[in-house]
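Example record

One chain of 127 residues, shown exactly as stored in the release files.
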Amino acid sequence: QVHVVESGGGSVQAGGSLTLSCAVSGLTTTSKCMGWFRQAPGKEREAVAAVYPGTTSTYYADSVKGRFTVSEGIGKNTLSLQMNDLKPEDSGMYYCATEAQYGGIWYCLRAVVYKSWGQGTQVTVSS
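Predicted structure tokens for this chain:
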């Protein structure tokens, strides 16, 4: 059974920074994508950033380009999201996702390709 655990959320003021971490266990195959998604109250879940493991490919939503950096951890099946210059609209529950059968630019920012999700970590940015 695959377990996905996020950590690192919190409350910050606008302009501040946070780093989210994701640890995955129980995977028996290499996921083609690992990604971060977020969901604010009353809104749909949206993609934030993703990586194609084993490559240098990273993908970002337009709203976070230049402010967020996604990276694989040194340990296998770990993922980080460095978030800088945070804005109130970045607030929400952030989810880590893995166990994707397909990878690359056409898939890694699409929630439908991921089979395993964490419980989420809350990020709150105040103005």
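Notes: The chain is about 0% helix and 50% strand.
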